[in-house]
Amino acid sequence: MKRVWRISEFTKTEHFLQKCGKNTNKSISKPLPPISFIREHVTQAPDIGAGQTPSFSDIISLFSDKWKYSSAETSLKKDLRKKVSVLKDEILSQNDDVEKIERVLDENGVVLFRSYSDGSAVVELLTQLKHFPYVAMEVFSWRRKQLDYAAPMTAAEYAKGIVMAGRSKNVDLAIELFKEASNKQLKATSLFNALMSAYTYNGLAMRCQSLFRDLKMEPTCTPSIITYNILISAFGRLMLVDHMEATLREIKDLNLTPTVSTYKGVIAGYITAWMWEEMEKTYRTMKAGPIKPNIDIHLLMLRGYAHSGKLEKMEEMYDMVRAHMDYKEIPLIRAMICAYCRSSDVAKVEKVEELLRLIPENEYRPWLNVLLICLYAKEDLLEQMENSINEAFERKAYVTTVGVMRCIISSYFRHNAVDKLANFVQRAEDAGWKICRSLYHCKMVMYASQMRLYEMERVLGEMDKVNMHLSKKTFWILYTAYERWDERSKLEQVIGMMCKHGYKVPVDAGNS
């Protein structure tokens, strides 16, 4: 669909021309205002239908610079990216050596940065280094020290530095940069947005809200829709749903146009708070409105359906987005696996294993390993369960809950695999897994059922070795085993021990 642009702040052509310093009573003979001026006053507008006469704003759109809005990059932007990419590669080749990095910047960076006095080259370099935060911060630190040697830093550079500091969890540095920029008379909405973003990333919602109030009182700056989006995200992360919804109402009261990011923050907030109905209601609102859900929204909804256990909708959403999923969406794959493991889907094992093939080996997670152990145990897939157990032992993963251990031994019990159970218990002891009395009782019962009484008695020594005292149930297992296999002398000994410990003796014990 073709996209066109309109002048947002001037509803009348005459008003626009006056702002440009023109006399509307005369013909337009002076040049149009600078592209940078027009770019600051354009927003998205509906398409022009066939046969319609284009308005003045439509004609202006032909000259607008779509640097940030167009999917097709301009040659100027491509040229900048190419130059910066060369510098980035040279910086990364220095193996994090600060002195060498600074030498590269001194020799090749200064000239490049001076040719882009608006700071776009520095911002682009930091953007390309986002996966190398240490190096990016070193580059930014070098840039701050070059204020007299090169061009002065711009608000855009400071905003980028504040965001980077926030992502590095260095909130103090983010605040320092904000104050430094303010002292240089560079205070702008983008700086407030950057610091609010840093606060949000570090879970400081109240400080984010306080800074938002400061912004509203600032005479030279005005909150933008980006500002409100950050605020919504901050409240959503901390499950402050009332605050989040109040912010959304304020956007509507101010007649600001919500963006995809607005709805993304709201939906994410509802997912965090497990408010599934509100999540779906917001999604339906988007589908019915002018701002349609994009791939990010669909991925978010996939997560919501996975967490809420709505498998049918989760699978429908997965079919929509699977072609767009890459390595960054591995957590979503794991969320879907969790959903299947919790479900009663008859084909859940096959579906889980299909998803597992999408997870690289270096994305191993111990908790997922344990989840698979329980899944295979409950489905009585002994071989798959033992394979997952072996992987857990090899990767030094630990099981720390009794529930998981009981799930494992129940599977061994149903398969009557006492020797495999004994081997598992020994390995679990050596690996430091959670040890419980059920492990030993299960072995005793299974040995007794096979008339392997000597091995059953040996389990008592194993219990003593791990400082696990004999309980009433232990004696009952012994009693039942000796009675079943007519071991009268040992049966009498067990009865005596039960009396000594104050446990109730079976009524027919004397007759046996």
Automatic annotation (TrEMBL):
PPR repeats span which residues? 224-258
Keywords of this protein's UniProt record, alphabetized? Repeat
Entries under InterPro entries matching the protein: PPR5-like, PPR_rpt, TPR-like_helical_dom_sf
Gene Ontology molecular function: mRNA binding
* Annotated PROSITE patterns: PPR
Q: Which Pfam families match?
A: PPR, PPR_3
Give the top-rank taxon of the lineage listed in the UniProt record for this protein.
Answer: Eukaryota
* Gene3D superfamilies the record matches: Tetratricopeptide repeat domain
The family line of this record is: Belongs to the PPR family. P subfamily.
What is this protein identified as? Pentatricopeptide repeat-containing protein
Q: Which organism is it from?
A: Buddleja alternifolia
